Amino acid sequence: xxxxxxxxxxxxxxxxxxxxxxxxxxxxxxxxxxxxxxxxxxxxxxxxxxxxxxxxxxxxxxxxxxxxxxxxxxxxxxxxxxxxxxxxxxxxxxxxxxxxxxxxxxxxxxxx
Length: 112
Description:
Helix content: under 10%
Number of strands: 11
Distance between the termini: 40 Å
Number of helices: 0
Structural class: mainly beta
Oligomer: single chain
């Protein structure tokens, strides 16, 4: 059974940083395309970033470039999203996704 579990969300002030984690199991993680997707309050799903775990190619939405860094630890089957210079508009539930499989999400709130 595929399982994706996010962690690391929380409340942070504008300009602050957070690192999200996605622990994966139930599939061949080291040969997967993994993504972070977010949903802000009252808005639709927004793609954030993706990584191919077998070659570590990374991709970002334009608004996240230079602020967010996606990475993978294949030995521990974990994907990360390092977020810096956070803005109030980054407030959202952040989801880990692999194909049609989604984690339950982790809440990130950016507020002073």
